[in-house]
Specification:
Largest sheet: 2 strands, antiparallel
Shape: rod-shaped
Helix content: 40-55%
Strand order of the largest sheet: 1-2
Distance between the termini: 78 Å
Number of strands: 2
């Protein structure tokens, strides 16, 4: 279906362009080419496009209707304990790294130590 839409649109645009160029170079059948191009675009391409859109909307509606109400998030229990594998915590997690050192060049990332440069 899409191929026929593309083919008819290209054919109609080619006919229109030949018609417009023919008007400037005084081609004898320029008006005929314009009418053929407009006819192909209006009588063939547009109806094919609208039927394709209608088929797409119908297919999309049937897919949405098929999966309506079956989302796993709706099946979760309302409980106070939210730390389950089905409902993970979305809070910001700490990385566990702290930066020690006095200046930029002496700082290094360490785990589990708050003030590492005072320990000797």
């Amino acid at each position: 279906m899409r191929n026929s839409i593309y083919f008819s649109a290209i054919l109609g645009l080619i006919s229109l362009s030949i018609g417009f160029v023919g008007l400037f170079i005084e081609l004898s059948d320029a008006k005929l080419w314009l009418l053929v191009g407009i006819g192909i675009l209006v009588l063939v391409t547009l109806p094919l496009y609208f039927t394709e859109q209608a088929r797409y909307k119908k297919k999309k509606a049937s897919i949405l209707k098929k999966y309506q109400g079956k989302h796993p998030a709706k099946n979760l229990k309302k409980s106070k304990n939210k730390q389950t594998p089905d409902y993970p915590s979305f809070r910001k997690q700490k990385s566990g790294l702290t930066w020690g050192g006095v200046n930029i060049h002496g700082s290094s990332a360490k785990r589990g130590s708050k003030i590492g440069f005072l320990k000797h």
